[in-house]
Specification:
The protein is mainly alpha-helical. Among the domains are: 51 residues; 87 residues, 2-Layer Sandwich (Ribosomal Protein S8, Chain: A, domain 1), CATH 3.30.1370.10; 95 residues, Hypothetical protein af1432, CATH 1.10.3210.10; 67 residues, GMP Synthetase, Chain A, domain 3 (2-Layer Sandwich), CATH 3.30.300.30. The protein has 14 helices and eight strands. The protein is flat and about 195 Å long. The termini are far apart. The relative contact order is 0.05.
C-alpha cells in the first residue's frame, strides 16, 4: 500500500515538473512573439514620426520662406517710399531756392524804389521852399506875418490829424475789446474742458458662466419675466459670452435692474418673490445714492448751504440727459464756465457757480410739467429760499424771463458753450426718449393700469393692470384701444406690439 502511495506521489511530481517545463516553454515562445511584435510596431511608429517630422520641416520651411518673402516685400515698399520722399524733398528744396532768388530780386527792386523816393522827396522840399519865397515876395508879408499864418495853418492841420488819430484809436479799441472778449471765452473753455458722456439705452451686466444665465431666466422664463415686470426694463439674454444686456431708455430703471441683478446673483436665491423684495430694496438704496451724489457734487464745486431738496434734485441729474448729454456733467461744466467768466470780469464767481449748477433743476422736477424748465427751476429756487440773483439767472438762461442781474448773461453764455461743443449733444436720442415716454404716459392714462413700460426700442409696450380693477375681457379691449390711440396720435417706425398683463396672486402666511 505504501508502495502505491509513493508511486502516486512520484508520478504527480513528475507530471507537475513536466507541466512546469511545458508552461515555461509556452511563455517563452509567447514572450518572443510579443517582443517581435513590439519591435515591429516601434519600427512602424519610428517611420511615421520620421515622415511627420519631414512634413513639419517642409511646412515650417515653406512658412519661413513666405515670411521672408513678405518681409522683403515690405522692405521694398518702404525703400520705394523713402525714394519717393527724397524726390519730393528735392523738389521742395528746388522750389525754396527759386522763391529765395525771387525774394532777393524783389528786395533789390524795393531798395531802388526807396532811393528814388528819397531823391524825389528832396526835390519836393526844394520846390516847396522856392514856392514859399515866391509867395512871400508876391504877398508882400513880413517874415513874422508869414510865420503866424503858417502857425495857424499848421494848427488847423494838426487838429485834423488829431481827430483822425482819435477815430483810429477808437476803432482799434473796439477791435481789441472784441479780441479780448474772445480770448476770455476761449481760455474759459480750455480751462474747464471735460469729457462728455453720451447716454445710451443699454447696460451690460457681466456674469461668470452660462449657469447663472439659466438661473436668471428661471423655469419657463418666470424669473426674467418677474424682473422685467418689477423694473420696467428688457433683459436680453443671447449668445454673448459672460454677459447679458439690460435695455431701457430710462437710466434709473437700468441702474435699479443692474443693482438688483447683482444682489440676486451674489445671494443665489432667484425667484419671483425674492426679485420683488430685492427690487424694492434697491430702489430705496438708489434714493440714498442720489442724495449722496448731490452732496458730493456740491462739495466738489464748493457750493454750500443748499436746501436738502435742491441737493436731491442735483443728484437726480446723474440719471437724466439733455439731448444725449448727461445733465449732471452738463450742470457741473456750466457752473465752472460761469465761475471762470465771472472771475475774468471781476464779478462774484461763487454766485455764478451756484447759479450755473442749479440752472437746469427744472428738468428733473415732477412739479408743474406744463411750465418751461427754466421758469420751473426759478420757481423751485425761489421756493427753497435762494437769492433773487440766482432765481433770475435760472429763469432767464433761455431768455424766458427778463435779465435783471449781472450773472444772468454769464449763465446763458456758459450753458450755450457747454451745449454747443461738437459732440456734446445728440438730439436724436432726446426725441427717441420723448416718444417712448409718450407711449408709456398714454397707456398709464387708462383706468386700472398700474404700470406701463416701453421696451425693445419702442417696438413693444407692456401694460400691467390690476386684477381687481380689470377683467380678462376688459384687458383684451384695453390692448385694442391703446393700439388704436397709438396709431392715431403718435408717429413711430414699423409696428408696436401692445401686451396687457393681468395677474392674480393669492398670498397666505403659516404661523
Amino acid at each position: 500500500m505504501l508502495y502505491y502511495i509513493l508511486s502516486a506521489i512520484a508520478g504527480a511530481i513528475v507530471a507537475l515538473a513536466v507541466y512546469i517545463i511545458i508552461r515555461k516553454a509556452s511563455l517563452k515562445g509567447r514572450r518572443d512573439n510579443l517582443l517581435q511584435k513590439a519591435e515591429l510596431e516601434a519600427e512602424s511608429i519610428k517611420q511615421q514620426k520620421i515622415l511627420q517630422a519631414k512634413e513639419k520641416f517642409i511646412q515650417l520651411k515653406s512658412e519661413h520662406e513666405d515670411y521672408i518673402s513678405a518681409k522683403n516685400k515690405q522692405l521694398q515698399e518702404r525703400e520705394n517710399a523713402v525714394h519717393q520722399k527724397e524726390s519730393q524733398l528735392g523738389q521742395q528744396a528746388a522750389e525754396l531756392g527759386r522763391k529765395q532768388h525771387e525774394l532777393d530780386s524783389a528786395k533789390g527792386v524795393v531798395n531802388a524804389q526807396k532811393e528814388a523816393l528819397e531823391r524825389k522827396q528832396e526835390e519836393c522840399e526844394k520846390l516847396t521852399a522856392q514856392v514859399n519865397r515866391q509867395l512871400e515876395a508876391v504877398a508882400g508879408m513880413t517874415a513874422q506875418e508869414a510865420k503866424n499864418m503858417l502857425v495857424e495853418n499848421l494848427k488847423a492841420e494838426a487838429r485834423t490829424e488829431a481827430q483822425a488819430y482819435v477815430n483810429d484809436t477808437m476803432d482799434e479799441a473796439r477791435l481789441n475789446a472784441a479780441k479780448e472778449a474772445k480770448r476770455i471765452i476761449i481760455n474759459t473753455i480750455q480751462r474747464t474742458a471735460t469729457e462728455t458722456a453720451i447716454e445710451n439705452a443699454v447696460t451690460t451686466f457681466p456674469i461668470d458662466n452660462d449657469e447663472v444665465k439659466g438661473r436668471i431666466i428661471g423655469r419657463e422664463g418666470r424669473n426674467i419675466r418677474a424682473l422685467e415686470a418689477a423694473t420696467g426694463v428688457e433683459i436680453v439674454v443671447d449668445d454673448t459670452p459672460d454677459a447679458i444686456m439690460i435695455s431701457a431708455f430710462d437710466p434709473v430703471r437700468r441702474e435699479v435692474a443692474r443693482l438688483a441683478l447683482h444682489q440676486l446673483v451674489i445671494d443665489g436665491r432667484i425667484h419671483p418673490a425674492r426679485i420683488e423684495e430685492v427690487v424694492s430694496k434697491v430702489s430705496r438704496q438708489l434714493e440714498d445714492e442720489i442724495l449722496e451724489t448731490g452732496k458730493r457734487t456740491c462739495i466738489d464745486l464748493g457750493v454750500h448751504g443748499l436746501n436738502i431738496e435742491l441737493v436731491k434734485l442735483i443728484g437726480r441729474m446723474k440719471y437724466r440727459s439733455s439731448y444725449g448729454q448727461n445733465l449732471l456733467q452738463h450742470s457741473r461744466e456750466v457752473a465752472n464756465i460761469a465761475a471762470t467768466l465771472a472771475s475774468e470780469l471781476g464779478l462774484n464767481s461763487k454766485l455764478a457757480k451756484r447759479a450755473g449748477l442749479l440752472h437746469d433743476i427744472g428738468k428733473v422736477s415732477d412739479e408743474d410739467p406744463d411750465l418751461p424748465h427754466a421758469l420751473l427751476g426759478a420757481k423751485l429756487a425761489e421756493q427753497y429760499k435762494e437769492r433773487p440773483e440766482i432765481v433770475n439767472a435760472i429763469g432767464s438762461h433761455h431768455e424766458e424771463m427778463e435779465m435783471t442781474t449781472t450773472i444772468a448773461p454769464l449763465v446763458l453764455v456758459a450753458d450755450a458753450i457747454s451745449g454747443a461743443r461738437p459732440g456734446a449733444r445728440r438730439e436724436v436720442i432726446e426725441s427717441y426718449i420723448k416718444r417712448l415716454k409718450g407711449m408709456e404716459d398714454l397707456a398709464a392714462s387708462y383706468q386700472g393700469v398700474t404700470k406701463s413700460y416701453a421696451i425693445q426700442a419702442g417696438r413693444e409696450l407692456r401694460v400691467i393692470v390690476g386684477a381687481d380693477q380689470v377683467t380678462d375681457e376688459e384687458a383684451g379691449r384695453l390692448s385694442t384701444d391703446i393700439a388704436q390711440r397709438i396709431q392715431d396720435e403718435m408717429t413711430y417706425p414699423g409696428q408696436v406690439k401692445i401686451t396687457v398683463i393681468r395677474e392674480t396672486r393669492s398670498v397666505a402666511f403659516a404661523k
